């Protein structure tokens, strides 16, 4: 009887852990749907400045690669003033999209930020002519400015991928930011 009870308790604990892990899984989403359904905060009086260390992960040559790797919130601070709203968002494969969520997983804001891994360089060839090249760095600091809105609990970071029609947002990370206070 004791072994059965112990086995049932372990099974229940395992199922709870699986449920919690899957609840934190981020799915790909559509950028046009995000921009249409989530209004950017306009009434914030302060901005939260998030410094995130992005290290490792596989990268490939070309501007469409975002790689993966690990993300760690290194520092956050509040500064006065609200971040700029995207009135006519122009997303590219060289950007990242950051979605701010509350503790219940509701989207409360989104921002487009440059991908700090992508560096454009012009190097001379053997004939002396300059040619453009894209270099991807492996260890960078990502600076994200989000409005200091009540309830902001975490951010999700996405890499845009062009589908031929619009941008699909592929998940990279979810970072708990707490209230920051």
Major sheet attributes: 5 strands, antiparallel
Radius of gyration: 20 Å
The structural domain count equals: 1
Task: Kindly report how far apart the N and C termini lie.
Answer: 49 Å
Describe the structure.
There is one protein chain. The chain has helices at residues 2-23, 31-37, and strands at 29-30, 46-55, 70-80, 95-102, 107-114, 118-124, 130-136, 139-147, 152-162, 167-176. The chain is built from 2 helices and 10 strands; from the N terminus they run H-E-H-E-E-E-E-E-E-E-E-E. The chain has one domain: Sandwich (Immunoglobulin-like). The protein has 181 residues and is an alpha+beta fold. The strands form 3 sheets. Strands 1-10-9-4-5 form a 5-stranded antiparallel beta sheet. A 3-stranded antiparallel beta sheet has the order 3-2-8, with no helix packed on it. Strands 6-7 form a two-stranded antiparallel sheet. Helices cover 16% and strands 46% of the residues.
Topology:
Elements: H1 2-23, E1 29-30, H2 31-37, E2 46-55, E3 70-80, E4 95-102, E5 107-114, E6 118-124, E7 130-136, E8 139-147, E9 152-162, E10 167-176
Antiparallel strand pairs: 1-10, 2-3, 2-8, 4-5, 4-9, 6-7, 9-10
Keywords:
181 residues; alpha+beta; 5-stranded antiparallel β-sheet; 3-stranded antiparallel β-sheet; 2 helices; 10 strands; 16% helix; 46% strand; globular
Summarize the structure.
The chain has 181 residues and is an alpha+beta fold. It has helices spanning 2-23, 31-37, and strands spanning 29-30, 46-55, 70-80, 95-102, 107-114, 118-124, 130-136, 139-147, 152-162, 167-176. The longest helix has 22 residues, at 2-23.
